[in-house]
Input
Amino acid sequence: MGHGHDHLHDHSHATAAGDDLPEALDLSIPTAELSSSDASRRRFLLGAGLLGAGAAASVLAQPGAAEAAGLPHTHDPVGGGTAKGGFRWLAGDHHIHTQYSSDGQYRVLDQALKGHAYGLDWLVITDHGSATHAKIGVDKVNPDIVKTRSELPGLLTFQGLEWNIPAAEHATVFVHPGRNEVDVLKRFENAYDGSLLPATNTAAQNEAMAIAGIQFLGEQVRKRKIDGALFFANHPARRGIDSPHEIRNWRDADPTVAVGFEGAPGHQAAGIPAPNGRGGARGYYDNNPSAASFPGYPLESYRTWGGFDWMTATVGGLWDSLLAEGKAWWITVNSDSHVNYLDQTGRGPDSNFDANGKYNDPVYTGTVNTSAGDFWPGYYGRTNVGASSFSYKAVMDGLRAGRIWVDHGRLIKNLDARVRVTGDRRDHTGTPLGGVLQVKRGTSTELVLDIDLQDVPNWAGFVAALKRVDVIVGTVTGPVADKDTYTTPNTRVVKSFEVSRTSGRVSFTYQLGRLDKPFYLRVRGTDGNRTQPGLLGSSVDPYGPQLDVVGAADPWGDLWFYTNPIWVLPR
Output
């Protein structure tokens, strides 16, 4: 049972990288505490892109690189976000459509203004890849994005697109702003979008094109055409066509680009029951297997669980099978906003999308749209990124490093999770989300978790109440023999903390024992309204999310948060 108390921030300079790491390279040490020569060395390394960004191909194969990705924390009072644990936690959404999508309707500025008003610090415009978009859309949307950056300097607005992954579902692809952002995105889409490839391609040829597309993005970074590119697979279990081996192959194609998938899809308003809403499935997860689906997936994978994708929601499932390999693979949430619930606008009349690559600006209709399946960006789901500053690069670095926790309906206000050597109470001690703590075998470690409970109403008008927090631990077993593996046998909920407080901060410490084999952990929490034993049984997950029922899936009545993992490895 955890009890809330005031928490003193902890600092440590001997963290995952070991005691012998040069101070200039140990990004857990604030620059202000370095000697002038070490500070100068660090600035050079950071400026050259040689420190702090890349994630390792495997935390087992190259833990040093993963440490560099997971460890930096500096203090920066400038910009948006909430300071906690030495980071600025910046809320964002990487999956948003506009009038430049064949099934969208809003201006870029409409989505950005609403997203910023609903609390977002960053967002990505991701109009659909298609023949029309590839031909003119990438160019046409850019001035609107540039204008939005100027109009809303307090919001980081990225340009991206929704990629039709060859042989698979969709993905967010986006790049760091710069003079080549349009050129790189346009060349990428024209060469690698699945909708533009020959219909005669075999599945194997298309899977190879997906890998080549991810590698192309990495090459553009290495050639310094752009300062960064990221890929997140969208709604991965929705149609069953993202097979486990494809997901592994995307990540392995370039782990600095392909870094994760949606832990929960957008389109959450689609679950609002009739007559007040669409009365459908959260995320539009109302599908059944097709000829293109991976035959191993169970029928339960085609539905959401507490609003989350089956790949994430199943303890010991597909996501955990990747983490147990030591693969850095992160989860996010977002809106997938196309047309928004309770909005009163429609597409501009006399639009010719095929000719113009966009719809005319939306017009007021006076009719309240209760059948739309989407929420405005920031209204319901948040991807919270631990950034070193308020900047495009810092957001991309935080995403790449896995310093991410996600929630629905503003379930909690903020979160700081760290693993540290037991009893080490120095300031900011420990390894944060996405990081790797390396200690000698036999060393005792502990999870320290601080959660600021919600005290302001969410956009549905109520203050969400956290009722339970679960700690999930899995053994790291290394690479799998079969790339279509989607379970791992040694991951389970090891501890649940009941939350009785309704305001302030709750802090939990969980003893992880003496290190005898490598492991990872992750954390989730719930309002406790809907739970059931997980798909792999109550001994693995006694109080997991419930299977969402089409037509009776009010997204506001079933709220969860999830963190990304932390690894503990012997050195």
Q: What stands out?
A: The first strand starts at residue 82 and ends at 84. The chain has two domains: 82-401, 412-570.
